Amino acid sequence: MSVTSISRDIQTLSESLTHKIIGQQHVVDSLLIALLTDGHVLLEGLPGTAKTRSVRSLAQSLDLELNRIQFTPDLMPSDVVGYESLNDEGMMSFVKGPAFTNILLADEINRAPPKVQSALLEAMEERQITVGGQSHELPEIFLVLATQNPVEQEGTYPLPEAQLDRFLMKIVVDYPKRADELAILKLVKKEQQFVEALMQVEPSVVLDARKAILDVYVSDSIESYIVDLVMATRSPDLYQTSQLSKWIRIGASPRATIALDKAARAYAFLKNKDYVDTDDVRAVAHSVLCHRITLSFDAMSDAIDSKAVVDELINVVEIV
């Protein structure tokens, strides 16, 4: 399949999702970026902001299998990955859990205890699940889309840095604007009258697009810019004119550099470009870096959030 044909199919997919997820273009772009780079996404937002709808629409548009797990304090690892059981012949056999799917919606992921989060961690990173000493491969297209509520934190288990780092992007889903909410109201009324089928794209297009994205050109200067952005989170003292050293306690790992490169390539591809420029890097910088930066106590006491820190990074790090 030609790159032009692949790009056209991905644009069709994007338009289909935009029609169903009104006023959340950054969410649509981020879901597609994760899908095209074989990554995972953490969606953070209040109830009713179309997080679940976004995930379901993505699965329907590609005719992919979707499983949903409501994470709760009493959830066990076997409820996610599966377990071994005696079959009718008296032999141990593996019963697959809901993680064996194309898209796994991990709803309120921070309500599950650490041992469950750890089981999911292997699936996200290794693309396989180990039970009883045996490894079981996950599907070629495997995407974890996890949600969490930023307000209701009582009785939750905050995701450890190691697991946060496994998410390619963290997306903050805000309330829609007035015009968008009016359009949402009309769309819901329309859907109550008749079900409008989503435009579908073959899953094979995703695999073809992943290969095409590898050919998106990234110049030496852009690669250096990506590295410098991440390095600035680890060596903020080098930027004396900024407040970075005061705000950052722990910077981003090399995994952030790789993620920023992947996301920028995919973003450029979505915009029908065969090269990456600084605008592409900056467009995905917040989603890639915010959850990988640990703020200092000074930053928190001054009400400085990670978005403001990344804004400052973009302001002070120059491209050479």
Automatic annotation (TrEMBL):
Alphabetic keyword roster: ATP-binding, Nucleotide-binding
All copies of the ChlI/MoxR AAA lid domain together span: 248-312
Which Pfam families did the record assign? AAA_3, AAA_lid_2
Q: Which InterPro entries match?
A: ATPase_AAA-3, CbbQ/NirQ/NorQ/GpvN, ChlI/MoxR_AAA_lid, P-loop_NTPase
Give the SUPFAM superfamilies listed for this entry: P-loop containing nucleoside triphosphate hydrolases (SSF52540)
Q: List each copy of the ATPase AAA-3 domain by range.
A: 40-169
A single Gene Ontology molecular function, please? Answer: ATP binding
CDD domains on file = AAA
Q: Which family does it belong to?
A: Belongs to the MoxR family.
Kindly provide the name given to this protein in its UniProt entry: AAA family ATPase
